[in-house]
Design goal:
Keywords: Ribonucleoprotein, Ribosomal protein, RNA-binding, rRNA-binding. By secondary structure, this protein is α+β, with helices and mostly antiparallel strands. Helix content is 40%, strand content 18%. A four-stranded mixed sheet has the order 3-2-1-4. α3 (78-95) packs parallel to α4 (113-123). 30% of the residues are buried. The model has no long low-confidence stretch (mean pLDDT 90).
Length: 128
């Protein structure tokens, strides 16, 4: 019997494992409370998802993503869509009575689409 015939993508497992380690390192320091919930950002190659979570109860209070109809059919660049997701999330948070959050970048670097989402949320009035 020879080697496995399953193709292995070089660098994929180590990249996801590294991001998971970074996210755990961030999560050791950051926790969302009822007064100041946690803004969690998840990024894929095409989409952005942002949620505001109360970790004491384990509930998602507000969420927004590029899959929302108001953002999805926009023909702009991904970073511009991310900024719109941040603005949409901030509006929904203010409607829910949330004004301040703790930012959890999810192990991703604070640049590009992550920074655009954060800037959009700040511009729309969310405090962090």
């Amino acid at each position: 019997m020879g080697k496995s015939s399953t193709p292995v993508r070089k660098g994929t497992a180590s990249r996801t494992a590294s991001r998971a380690r970074r996210h755990l390192r961030v999560r050791k320091k950051i926790s969302g409370t009822a007064q100041r919930p946690r803004l969690v950002v998840t990024r894929s190659s095409k989409h952005m998802v942002a949620q505001i979570v109360d970790d004491t109860k384990g509930h998602t209070l507000v969420s927004a993503s590029t899959l929302d109809p108001s953002v999805r059919h926009d023909e702009s660049k991904k970073s511009e869509k991310s900024q719109k997701v941040g603005e949409l999330l901030a509006r929904r948070a203010q409607d829910a009575g949330i004004t301040a959050v703790v930012f959890d970048r999810g192990g991703f670097r604070y640049q590009g689409r992550i920074a655009a989402l954060a800037q959009g949320a700040r511009d729309a009035g969310l405090e962090f």
